Known about the structure:
Blueprint: H1 3-10, H2 13-20, H3 32-35, E1 38-42, H4 43-52, H5 54-57, E2 60-61, E3 69-73, H6 93-97, E4 100-102, E5 108-111, H7 115-133, H8 139-161, E6 172-175, H9 176-188
Antiparallel strand pairs: 1-3, 2-3, 4-5, 5-6
Helix pairs in contact: 2-9, 7-8
Organism: Methanolobus vulcani
Protein name: YkgJ family cysteine cluster protein
InterPro entries: Puta_zinc/iron-chelating_dom (IPR005358)
Amino acid sequence: MEISTAVKKVIHYNVVQNxxxxxxxxxxxxxxxxxxxxxxxxxxxxxxxxxxxxxxxxNITSEGLYAGLYQMNTPCSFLNTSGRCEVYxxxxxxxxxxxxxxxxxxxxxxxxPCPIGFLIIRDFAEWIVDTFSRSGVTDEEIVRIKEExxxxxxxxxxxxxxxxxxxLLKEMQIPFDELEMLSMFLSSKKYAVHNIESKKSA
Length: 202
Ligand code: SF4
Ligand code: SF4
């Protein structure tokens, strides 16, 4: 099995896809995630990118990284001048899951409060409050949970305001089992499908 396929299983990549299909990257974001920081790829993904465009894949390096891990400095060579990914249908794992990010816990994913990430956080807060409201806890407890999550949402909204300028963001950690439930919650609400135009293929 390819390493990227094995990793996708571990990090619940399919669940992430089921969540992300409900959201849309705003054009105003300018594909920020493809333009800043470093982007990491697995060896089998580098092979695919090399077949797609050997010249652009030359900008991928493995220097100083763990065996089997590669890096593209940003802006990513596969990002075209219109801010679209030229290899969208074959995009590597980290690209397909952003604003979710792998962490070292093994039990959760991080969620960056970028424009889409913030919308997911807001919906996650709604799901938490909804779940508690149906669980038979007291009205006082529901009010307390609502206030707590309102504050959480406001603090991530503050991160979003500075999103394009901050090198590090306070990211939300979402346990894998809660990811599954959030996905079901979003599907049950029959959210409109928003296209992820700013990262989609040219
Ligand atoms: S995932 Fe979308 S909204 Fe978030 S930084 Fe990337 S392009 Fe922007
Ligand atoms: S989504 Fe495409 S353009 Fe963006 S970092 Fe990944 S490969 Fe590069």
